[in-house]
Specification:
Number of strands: 9
Number of helices: 5
Distance between the termini: 14 Å
Number of domains: 1
CATH topology: Rossmann fold
CATH class: Alpha Beta
Order of helices and strands: HEEHEHEEEEHEEH
Length: 176
């Protein structure tokens, strides 16, 4: 097991847990954020995607912001987060609907047309992949922009998908 995976697994054991289908990481990843842990996880993503030619990192508001920012910083590229509410300052935008399993709510994601360009190579980074609704919405937005989804990286992959780079998978979590 890679260092980042072992450190994240140890943190879940120590400061988190699993309750039913919910992996509790709110004391170090997505509410109270441990910047050193995020940096370690981002370093692994950056290493995996350094040679892919990423132009921007994209995530969805809010829990993906920390790992996406850290990954973009390590790759030396800008990052964008899809907003859950369209601000008045966003004249033209791409949008797509998503559903959060954890929050049990539907939302629309918005990205300004000014920040995504045709042909840009986009890395989608998020905290979890569960049922894939956010990834579907982000893929729709990237497609509408004429950009290219060059990769998907999530901290914890709860799905059966194996085409997504992740630090931990369901197989890793069975040891908890």
């Amino acid at each position: 097991m890679r260092e980042a995976a072992q450190v994240l697994l140890d943190r879940i054991r120590r400061d988190g847990g699993i309750e039913n289908d919910v992996i509790k990481v709110d004391h170090f990843l997505n509410h109270l954020v441990d910047p050193r842990l995020i940096d370690l996880l981002a370093a692994e993503f950056a290493e995996r995607y350094r040679r892919v030619g990423i132009d921007k990192v994209l995530t969805a508001e809010a829990s993906g912001i920390a790992p996406a920012f850290a990954t973009a910083l390590r790759l030396g590229v800008p990052f964008v987060f899809a907003k859950k509410k369209k601000p008045l300052t966003m004249a033209g935008c791409y949008s797509a609907d998503s559903y959060s399993f954890t929050k049990q709510e539907a939302t629309t994601l918005f990205v300004s047309r000014e920040v995504l360009r045709p042909e840009e190579r986009i890395l989608f980074v998020d905290d979890f992949l569960a049922r894939g609704a956010t990834l579907r919405a982000i893929t729709e937005i990237i497609g509408a922009a004429g950009a290219v989804l060059a990769g998907t990286a999530v901290l914890i992959n709860k799905s059966e998908r194996r085409d997504v780079a992740s630090i931990l998978t369901l197989d890793d979590l069975r040891f908890l």
